[in-house]
Structure formats: C-alpha cells, structure tokens
C-alpha cells in the first residue's frame, strides 16, 4: 500500500507540476503582454509630449504672425496717409476749405461792419456790372492767394517737422 500511496502522491505531484508549468507559461505570457503595454504607453506619452510641444510652437508662431500682420497694416495705413497728405487731392481740399473759410469770414466781417456802421454805404462791395463774370473781387483774389500760400507753407513746414 505504501507503494500505491506513493504512486498516488507522484501522480498528484505530476498533475500539480503540469498545472504549475501552465501557470508559469500563462504568467510569462501576461508579463510579456504587460511589458508590451508599458512600451506602447511610453511611446504614446512621448508622442503626446511631442504634439503638445508642436502645439506650443504653433501658438507662438501664430502670435508672431499676428504681430507682423498688425505692424504691416499700421505701416500701410501710415504710407497711405502720407501719400494722401502729399497728393493733389488734399491740396485741392485745403484750397477749397481755405476759400470757403475766407469767403465766410469776409461775409461775417461785412455783416459786422454793416451793423456797426449803418450809415456807411457798402454798395461798392457788390458787383458793379451784371454782365461781368461772377467771381471774387481782385482784392479778394489777392487775399485768397496770400492765404493759400500761407497754408501751403504751413503744411510744408508741418510735413518737414513730422519727417
């Protein structure tokens, strides 16, 4: 009986050895899968870190480009303003404004004189002949020309001082 007991014990131990081998193989397989998962996880972390770095670089580049665009727009506006200031269009606008201002000032002055000195005959300020071409008197033309020269000189002086 001892021999049968030993035989049963050996069979039992052999069965356990087989189970242990299966468990060892399974354990090795799981460890391999775990290492593979850790390797993949590390790779994904590296890729994620690289993508974050690229995202930061892209944001910096976008900010730089926005600053360059803003600067370019401001420079273009400044150039356009300078070109407009030196153009004949602005000179014509200045001349037209000065003429209107002069005529308005003359009319206001004429009204003040008429109110202040009602006894004065100011008819000489009116056009003498109906057939004459309408336009300012020669005195007004001289004053307009003087005022235009002064405004042109003032504009030139300001333009030089701004440079």
Helix-strand layout with pairing:
Layout: H1 2-86, H2 88-116, H3 138-162
Helix pairs in contact: 2-3
What can you see in these coordinates?
- This protein has 3 helices and no strands.
- The chain is mainly α and 163 residues long.
- The protein has 2 domains: 25-81; 87-163.
- Helix 2 packs across helix 3 (138-162).
- The radius of gyration is 50 Å and the shape is rod-shaped.
- The protein starts with a helix and ends with a helix.
Care to give the gist of this entry?
The chain has 163 residues and is mainly α. The chain has helices at 2-86, 88-116, 138-162.
The domain tally reads 2
The shape is rod-shaped
Structural class: mainly alpha
Number of helices: 3
The proportion of residues in beta strands is under 5%
What distance lies between the first and last C-alpha atoms, to the nearest angstrom?
Answer: 121 Å
What brief labels describe this structure?
163 residues, mainly alpha, 2 domains, 3 helices, rod-shaped
